[in-house]
Structures are given as structure tokens and as C-alpha cells.
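[job 0412] stage=fold_complex status=start
inputs:
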Amino acid sequence: MFIGEYTYSIDEKKRLAIPTKFRQVLDKKAVITRGLDNCLFLYPLKEWEKLAEKLSKLPLSQADARGFARLMLIGAMEVNLDNLGRVLIPDYLKKYASFKKKVVIAGVYNRIEIWDEKRWEEYKTKTETGIGDIAERLGELGV
Amino acid sequence: MFIGEYTYSIDEKKRLAIPTKFRQVLDKKAVITRGLDNCLFLYPLKEWEKLAEKLSKLPLSQADARGFARLMLIGAMEVNLDNLGRVLIPDYLKKYASFKKKVVIAGVYNRIEIWDEKRWEEYKTKTETGIGDIAERLGELGV
DNA sequence: AAGTGTAGTGGATAATTGTGGATAACTATG
DNA sequence: CATAGTTATCCACAATTATCCACTACACTT
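[job 0412] stage=fold_complex status=done
writing structure:
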């Protein structure tokens, strides 16, 4: 399980270190994809395979399902952790998530999220102010 | 599984390099054909055989199904990868997909798509805005 | 409080790969 | 049969990528 928030920096070679606690679970190989709200998702290989399998079953004949599967599958990239536990961020994903130097790596149960630091702060303050409303909806979910 | 987005260029001899990660799976021979949304599909031989089988079973009575099957079957061509992992793009397919110099090679699970770079960018932005809420769709998939 | 160890960051070297050109083989046509 | 044009195989260079190594800073231990 991934939990916690860490701040790291991407060097000029697009390398990003993964927090030590997450490395043990990731096992040298992982898949990085487009995420929600302009962040990136990082999945362990097995979690990704489950997701990809579902995406591949979407009907090819319907334009919007086709587009969705394309965005998610084409947006994904298998990454290897080097000896020091770093991964390479592909250009198009770096651009998609508008990464500058500092990024925030956050554990969200079965996946890892990677945010541009500034966007993360903005998202956090926005969410924190609205957290009262969210709590009410959580009640509906039985939490 | 094919995933990821790569940018390559077609030289003046209509040769196109296939990303290294895809070569291992393709095994020297592949089938290239007309795809949806003005891109090309590239299949491993076995995947193509399965698809061709399905296409041949489409009801002869429906005009659009018949047209789709014709498009893909007649447009298909077997291509060989040379020693450096490049394939030759036939003229009529190059024209169909309106390739200029730069193309995007994209992995979509069991097939590879080849897009003219400009068209891909257009399709991507169009789809990103038109796809609606990605979160909801992921939720439907149980992710 | 000092030393040792671990982890984040940056740089350097070696290997791989994308791209272009050149030569050889084959086909077609006069 | 020969020549011209097209196609295929091979080779070389340049740029990017991957692996390796070193340094620094923080933390924990003794």
C-alpha cells in the first residue's frame, strides 16, 4: 500500500527519484500514465495490467470509447528504476503534467500520484477549503 | 502489450523505424493496414490473423460493416523489418494517412497506431476536451 | 557530540539507437 | 540482351539514452 507525501526534484535529464518506501513494492518496473487533474499515475506492473486489460475490452467501433482507450494506453509508458531508484519521465508526460523542477510524489493506496509542486499546493488549498462538503458525501459512501 | 507514444520521422525512401520496445514483439514480420480516424494500424502477424478472421465473418448484408472490412482487408500489406528495425510504408497508405515527415507511433494494447504528427496532436486535444470526465469513466471500469 | 550510514542530487562515461547515405540486387521495359 | 529505374541490404555518423560513480546533506546511533 502506498501512503504519504514526498517532495522531489526532476533533474535536467528528466530523472525522478522514487521514495525509498515505494521502491520495495515497485520491484524495478512500473507503468506511468496520464492521471486526473493534470497529475501522473504510477502503477506497479500488475495493477497496470489489470487496468489495461479492461481498457482493451472497450468497443473499437464507438468513437468516444476508442478515444478514451487511446488516451490512456498511448499515454502510458513502462519505466525501469535504475540502481538508485530513479525513473525517466517521458517528454510528453512531463509536458502533460506541466512539471517544472519540484514535484510532489504521493501514495494513494494502490497507485502513486506525481504532481507539479505548484499545482499540488493549489489543488490542496482548494480541496481543504471544500473538505466540509466532501465529508458529507463520504457519509453517503458509508465512511 | 504495446503502450506509449513515440515520435519518429519517415525518410525520403518511405522508411520508418519502429520503437525498440515494439520490435521484440513484432518478430521481423508485421501487417500494416488502414486504421480508424486516418491513422494506420500495425499488427503482429498473429493478431492480424485473428482480426482478419473476425472481419471475414461480418455480415455481408450490412453496407457499412462490409465497407469497413473491405477497407482493412484490401488495405493490408505484409511488411518486413530490416536489420535496423525499419518498415517500408506503401505509397497508398502514406497517402491515406497523409503522412508528412514526422509521425507518431503509439502502442494501443494489441496493435500499433501510426499517426501524422499534426493529426495526432489535433486528435489528442480534441479528445481530451470531448471525452468528458476521465474520473467517471475510470470509475465505470472499477479502477 | 561525533562518526557512520543512508538517501537525494548531479555529473561523466559507455552503449544503444535514430537517421541519412551508399552500394548491391532485382525488375521492367525498350 | 542491355539499360534504366526501383527496391532491398548494408554501413557510418551523430545524438540521445542508460549505466555507473562521486559528492553532499541529513539522520540515527553510540
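[job 0412] summary: The radius of gyration of chain B is 16 Å.
[job 0412] exit 0
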